[in-house]
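Entry 14. Ran structure prediction on the chain below.
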Amino acid sequence: MTSGITMIGDWGRQTRDSLDRALQASIEVCGRNAEQACRHAVILMAQSASAMAKKAPARRPILKDGAGFEYINTYKKGQKQPIPLHKFKFEQSKNNAAWQKKWNINGTWAQARKIKNRGLAKRSWLWGLRKLGGAEGGKGAIPGTSRVYSIVDKNQFDFVKEDRLHYIWEAMPKGWQAEVRMRAGNKIMAQAANKIERDWTRTMGNSGALGARRTFESFAKRAA
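Output, structure tokens:
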């Protein structure tokens, strides 16, 4: 989706500037206060990150080692390197308790190939959003993998959505951080534009033609 993005100039800075303008519109046009605008922006960015996260296939691909034996790569929590699991271990362990114990085999080869936590990266971005006033994404949040918190001092406040899923970086496409800022900014600006249009339509319905031009100029100023 974004893996083919070509960076022109300082695109990260441009998207940050665009989001800053969108936050201003969220306050001045949509009527949110600064805290509400920040909360809303973080929710939109998390939703965009969730939409961009890659979803694993339903089953692990079958690979072959140097000797031609089939295997799949498995992963354990806290380990980044894959652990090979060979098909012949299941064949030896079938109806043989001794081999099952030796290879620590549970279930079947087909069951081992199935990816249990498929879609976890997508869901993880939505965990904890209830703290910001958003909808909680899915169920079964893994403790310690997601955190939503605020940084407040006398001069500023920030809301932070943190995703610590150990493979989250591999699940995200190139350029995703700037992309989620841009998407959030675009959504906020679209909301502001719709608000201005609704206000303009309502004002025109309640005013005569003599005040129409002056009224339009005031709305155009808000949109600038």
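Residues 22-56+120-198+216-223 form one domain. Will compare against last week's run tomorrow.
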